[in-house]
Amino acid sequence: MPMPSSFPMSAAVREAYRSGQEDETLPPVVLCDAGGRPVGRFRKGDSVIFYNIRGEREGELTESLIRNDFRHFPVENGLDIRFATMISYGKDLDVRVAFPTEEVVLDTLGDVLSRHGIPQVRITEAEKAVHVGFFLSGKRTGLLPGEERIVVPTRKDVALFDEAPEMSIAGITEAVLARVLDPSARFVFANLPNVDVVGHIENEGAVMKAVGAVDRAAGVLTDAALRAGWTVIVTADHGSAEKWLYPDGAVDTGHTDSPVPFLLLDSAGPVPLRPRGTLIDVAPTILDLLNLPVPAAMTGRSLLMTEGAKPRAERLLVLLLDGWGLNPARDGNLIARAETPVMDRLLAVGAHAALEAAGEAVGLPAGTVGNSEAGHLHIGAGRVFYSDRIRIDRAIADGSFSRNEAFRWAVEAAKRDGKALHLMGIVSFFSSHGSLNHLYALMDLAREAGPEEVYIHAMLGRRGEQPESGARYIGQVEQRAAEIGCGRVVSVIGRYWSMDREENWDRIEKTYRMLVHGEGRPVRDETGS
How do strand 120-125 and strand 187-192 relate by DSSP bridges? Predict the structure, then answer.
């Protein structure tokens, strides 16, 4: 449905589509007044609420806006912004956090291995470093005693990974092989990220190449490990490319609600497994194989069948094929269509189970898709943790959201001091980084208690969304703002530029200059306000 002319930012995004641009990499678009001056820039003493969740892609932008000692690109010193975040984006950030972590996650898989003196090595490339570290460790930073992390550099010579679907898988494979041949190594956890990362890009051929690259690497690594006397687990954290199409035939580049495989390979032969489980069963199964006690906090169950003698692993390799879901249908299934002789063979002859990796099984709202954060967290924790999304949704429902101390601090200060309030974050219903409902709740709070000037800075992404959904969402936000008489969308940018975690500071600088200096494609405010 076309947006009214009074909704300039959604119209501008639709115009960008016509010129070949898309949501994920949309260059900055800024609202300007009749004189061509950008509207709603960050000014000294303003209040900002960054409402994204997850947190690993939000820290860099936050740093650039709050730190006077920031050195990665030129910034305005002395902005003195009152900055609140939905959840914690890092312990060293001087911000107010609305929903801080409620508890420290202890007795994880890594904790048990460390306590029993089993050295552990976690290997991936930089694109997934936070997942094998922070999330697998129960949202804790730092190394455990006896833990080593090997992070292969992510390629910087490509703009998007469909230009290089193999990514840095050769380096990951080389690092894993070195540990497999190291007699002192006992436990290796390796994430192969290609299917998930490339699967977020609408390039069917590239996704199939990524699937093939992961399959080949899995073959090399499982063969080498089995020859060296290792036991091997092959599993995944969530699905993606196995459901590449929406029912109407449009491409779906997001995650899925599919189960994921769990394969157990041992040189002694097949090992009976329970046919179904969830991701919280992975850690208890690993500890069972290593003959280690399962902590009482882990409510997951070992997948090993209890009848007969159980296998014992002296050395264990876990290969996580990020984004590799199970789907019996071939229609729209890029994993089934790709060349995957290794996984085809292993699923045909090896012991395997199907694990739930989405929705309530991994602490997410019922019916929602899985994601890498929840996947790695639950694989490591061996129990269900309710997601930040559920906590926030419950706070909105019971009214405590509007009384949240961090929000009130930012909103009421802006009103008291005659400053602007800025609401910044992802504009999506399906992103694991946030929800439009959270933005709407903040707009309602601002209408009730906030200042006269409320500006909305939107980040767009294609992951899990219908084509051109960004313009539709921006239109909905503009409509909501008009209905309640609070807020204006004043900037829009693709999440590629604003939600980075690999120190691509040139991208963050583009977002910073949009927010602070109003740099971007100008869009005239046709309302004349």
Answer: parallel
- What is the tally of structural domains in the chain? 2
Q: What is the pLDDT of residue 340?
A: 97
For residues 90 and 125, membership in a common domain is answered with no
Q: Which residues constitute the domain of residue 426?
A: 8-100+389-524
**Alpha helix segments (H runs only) across 119-193:** 129-130, 169-180
pLDDT for 309 equals 64
DSSP state letters, 45-92: T-EEEE---S-TTTHHHHHHHH-TT--SS---TT---EEEESS-S-TT
Answer yes or no: are the C-beta atoms of 231 and 265 closer than 8 Å: yes
Helix ranges (H only) for 418-449 are: 436-449
With DSSP H G I counted as helix, E B as strand and the rest as coil, what are the percentages for the chain, rounded to 5?
Answer: 35, 15, 45
Q: What average pLDDT is seen over the chain?
A: 93
Token pair 């504009």 in the structure block, residue: 427
271 within domain boundaries: yes
- Determine, yes or no, domain membership for 2: no
Instruction: Please give the backbone phi and psi of residue 393, each rounded to the nearest 5 degrees, phi first.
Output: -60, -40
Question: In whole angstroms, what separates CA 303 from the centre of its chain?
Answer: 27
Sole residue written with tokens 């570290």: 133
CB neighbour class for 396 (10 Å; exposed up to 12, middle 13-18, buried from 19)? middle
Q: What is the mean pLDDT of residues 381-392?
A: 91
Structural domain contains residue 343: yes
Verify that 331 and 446 share a domain, yes or no.
no
Assigned domain for 1 exists: no
Q: Are both 340 and 488 inside the same structural domain?
A: no
Based on the fold, state whether residues 374 and 403 are members of the same structural domain.
no
- Count of C-beta atoms within a 10 Å radius of residue 96: 18
Q: Which of 421, 323, 485, 368 is nearest to 48 (CA)?
A: 421
The distance of Cα 456 from the centroid of its chain, to the nearest Å, equals: 22
SS3 352: strand
pLDDT at 2 over 60: no
